[in-house]
Design brief:
Elements: H1 42-60, H2 73-85
């Protein structure tokens, strides 16, 4: 049984002539073929807006920010790991 050289070689060739144009109705409830209708749920707009507002509030009031005074946990972990690995 022969094996096709290309996986799409068994499909018929597509005609190069364009399809005849069909008349459009005067009024239609559907969007035209060249228009795209986008529908988003309410939270897809609300969540980014809330996040933007929160970040904007944090930027606008930097006076309340305080620097950390304790050693970071990652630094302590690295220090303990080095002590365990050192002879």
């Amino acid at each position: 049984m022969p094996v096709p050289a290309h996986p799409r070689s068994h499909r018929p060739a597509v005609s190069s002539r364009p399809a005849p144009a069909s008349p459009r109705p005067a009024v239609s409830n559907r969007p035209a073929a060249d228009q795209v209708e986008i529908r988003l749920p309410w939270w897809a707009v609300a969540l980014p807006a809330v996040a933007f507002g929160a970040l904007l509030l944090m930027i606008m009031s930097p006076g309340q920010a305080q620097a950390a005074t304790a050693d970071p946990a990652l630094g302590q972990l690295i220090e303990r790991t080095l002590h365990l690995l050192a002879p």
